[in-house]
Write a structure and sequence with these properties.
458 residues, alpha/beta, Rossmann fold, 4-stranded parallel sheet, 44% helix, 15% strand, elongated, RNA-binding
RNA sequence: GGCUCGGUGGCAGAGUGGUUAUGCAGCGGAUUGCAAAUCCGUCAACGCCGGUUCGAUUCCGACCCGAGCCUCCA
C-alpha cells in the first residue's frame, strides 16, 4: 500500500507519506461563485475526488477541504450587472456548484470554508506578516514584499528577475517591487468590506486560501491541489504568505491538473470557449462527463469534444451491460485492493486511464468466467468502479434511463417487445424485425439472450 | 523575450532500453432466424536529425511543431 504522487515542487513523483501516520489533510482550490462552473472547472473536482476516495482506503481520517470564494471583484461586478445583492449571487452559484459537482458523483468535501466566514483569520495573517517584516501598508493597501522571501518563485520555477523580464502589467504606484501582491485592499463604500487596522477593506485572493488552510487544517498540510494555471501566482503567493508567517512547511505535496482543451486551446472563461457542466448535463449524464474527464491522465491536457463524450457513454454502456448480464450473481468475496492492478494504477499518481484499462480486463474475465468465479470478479469490478466513482447504479436504471428528454416510455417498449417475441415464436420474422427497427428509430436497442430480450436507450 | 510541459497506430490514450497496453473504428471468423451482445483472430504507432548502446519509441543533444504560465482563470 503505497501511493506515489507527482509533486509540482520537486517536479518528480514521490512516495506519499502524510505528516501524521493515519490522517491526511488535503485542500483543493474551489470556485469563485459568480457564475456557473464549466466542464474544465470540474476536472480538478473529479480528479481530486478520486484521490480522496483512494486516500480513504488507506488512512483512517482524511480531511478534504474545498473553499468557496465568495468575495471578489467579479462577484461584485456580477451583482451589479444583474441588480442583485452579493449574497443572492453567491448563494445561487454556491448551490448550483454543489449540485453540478454532485451530479458528477463527486463526494462532498469534508469542509467547505467560505472566504467571508474567515475574514478574521485573514486579518490576523496579514498582521503577522507585517510584524515579521514581510508585508507593508501603502495607500490603504497591504502588500506582500516578495523580496523579503529568498526562495520566492520556487514552485513556479522562476526567479524575480525572470518575472520582471516578462512583466506585462503596469506596476501600481503603491508597490515597492513590481512583484508585490495585495493582501488587503480598500473597499468602496458601496462594496462589501470589513473593518481592519488598515481601514475598511477586503482580502486579496491569495490570502484567502492561506488563511483558511491555517484556520481549518493547520500550518502544514499534506496535499494541495488545483489547476496548473494556479501555480503562478496563486499558489506561489500562498506559499510566500504561509511560510513567512508560520515558518516550516506549508504544503508537502503540490498537485496540479492540466486543463481541458477545445480545438487545441485551453478552455477558459476569458476565452469564452467553455461549456458549462449544467448545459452538458442536459445532454449527457454526470457519470458520462466524469468518465470522460478520467479517460486521460490528470497531468495531460484532455481535448474536450462530442466524440470524447460519445466514447465515454459507449464505454460505460458496455460496462453496465456486462453488469446487467450478472444481475442474478451476487457480488461477493474479499477484494484485496493492494493486489488489484486497477488499484496499483491509481496508487501510481492516479493513473486513471490505466485503471480503466484494468476495468476492461476485469469485464473480459467476467464474460469468460465459470459461474463459481463470477461473484468475486463482480465484486472486484464494482470495487474498481467505486474508486473511480462510476458503475454504482443499477444497470437497468442506467441503460434504460437517459440524460435528455424521455422518448418512448418503458411500458410501450415492453409491449412491443412482447409482440415481437410472439412474432418470433410464430416465425414472422419480418414483423419482428420491423418492431426492432421501429424501436431503434425511437432510440431503443434490443438485445436477445437466453434469458429474454433486454433493451437500452442509445 | 523568460520559464514550464508536450508531440505514440484512423481516433482516444497508457507505457517501456530488447518481448511494442487498453478502448473505439476497420477486417476475417464463431454465435444468432437476422441482428445486438459476447468470444476468437487480425491490421496498424512511437515528430525530425544526430549521438550513446549489442539494441532506443523509451536515455542525451540539436531542430521542427504545439500548448501553458509570466494578468483574473481549474
Amino acid at each position: 500500500m503505497s501511493i506515489t504522487v507527482y509533486n509540482t515542487l520537486s517536479a518528480r513523483k514521490e512516495p506519499f507519506e502524510p505528516l501524521a501516520p493515519d490522517s491526511v489533510t488535503m485542500y483543493v482550490c474551489g470556485p469563485t461563485v459568480y457564475n456557473l462552473a464549466h466542464i474544465g472547472n470540474a476536472r480538478p473536482v473529479v480528479v481530486f475526488d478520486v484521490l480522496f476516495r483512494l486516500l480513504q482506503t488507506q488512512y483512517g481520517k482524511v480531511v478534504y477541504a474545498r473553499n468557496i470564494t465568495d468575495v471578489d471583484d467579479k462577484i461584485i461586478a456580477a451583482a451589479r450587472e444583474t441588480g442583485r445583492g452579493i449574497d443572492e449571487v453567491t448563494a445561487e452559484f454556491t448551490a448550483k456548484y454543489r449540485e453540478d459537482m454532485a451530479a458528477l458523483n463527486a463526494l462532498p468535501p469534508t469542509l467547505e470554508p467560505h472566504a467571508t466566514h474567515n475574514i478574521e483569520a485573514m486579518i490576523a495573517l496579514t498582521q503577522t506578516l507585517i510584524e515579521k517584516g514581510h508585508a507593508y501598508e501603502s495607500q490603504r493597501h497591504v502588500l506582500f514584499a516578495v523580496e523579503s522571501m529568498p526562495d520566492y518563485g520556487r514552485l513556479s520555477k522562476r526567479s524575480l528577475d525572470d518575472m520582471l523580464a516578462g512583466a506585462r502589467v503596469e506596476v501600481a504606484d503603491y508597490k515597492r517591487h513590481p512583484g508585490d501582491f495585495v493582501l488587503w485592499k480598500p473597499a468602496a463604500a458601496e462594496d462589501p468590506g470589513w473593518e481592519s487596522p488598515w481601514g475598511r477593506g477586503r482580502p486579496g485572493w491569495h490570502l484567502e486560501c492561506s488563511a483558511m488552510i491555517r484556520a481549518h487544517l493547520g500550518e502544514t498540510i499534506d496535499i494541495h491541489g488545483g489547476g496548473r494555471d494556479l501555480i503562478f501566482p496563486h499558489h506561489e503567493n500562498e506559499i510566500a504568505q504561509s511560510r513567512c508567517a508560520h515558518g516550516g512547511d506549508y504544503v508537502r505535496y503540490w498537485m496540479h491538473n492540466a486543463y481541458l482543451d477545445i480545438d487545441g486551446e485551453k478552455m477558459s472563461k476569458s476565452l469564452g470557449n467553455f461549456r458549462t457542466v449544467r448545459e452538458l448535463l442536459g445532454h449527457y449524464r454526470g457519470e458520462v462527463l466524469r468518465f470522460a474527464l478520467l479517460s486521460a491522465h490528470y497531468r495531460s491536457p484532455l481535448n474536450f469534444s462530442a466524440e470524447l463524450l460519445d466514447q465515454a457513454e459507449a464505454t460505460l454502456a458496455a460496462f453496465y451491460n456486462t453488469l446487467r448480464a450478472l444481475e442474478e450473481v451476487p457480488a461477493a468475496g474479499e477484494v484485496a485492493l493492494a493486489e488489484e492492478s486497477f488499484y496499483r494504477a491509481l496508487e501510481d499518481d492516479l493513473n486513471t486511464p490505466l485503471a480503466i484499462a484494468e476495468l476492461h480486463a476485469l469485464a473480459k474475465q467476467l464474460h469468460k468466467a465459470a459461474d463459481a468465479e463470477k461473484p468475486l470478479l463482480k465484486a472486484r469490478l464494482l470495487a474498481a468502479g467505486k474508486l473511480l466513482g462510476i458503475l454504482q447504479q443499477a444497470p437497468d436504471e442506467w441503460l434504460q434511463g437517459g440524460a435528455g428528454e424521455e422518448g418512448i416510455d418503458a411500458e410501450a417498449i415492453d409491449a412491443l417487445i412482447n409482440e415481437r417475441q410472439q412474432a418470433k415464436a410464430d416465425k414472422h420474422y419480418a414483423r419482428a424485425d420491423a418492431i426492432r427497427a421501429e424501436l431503434l428509430a425511437a432510440g431503443v436497442e434490443l438485445e436477445d439472450s437466453r434469458e429474454g430480450t433486454r433493451w437500452r436507450r442509445i
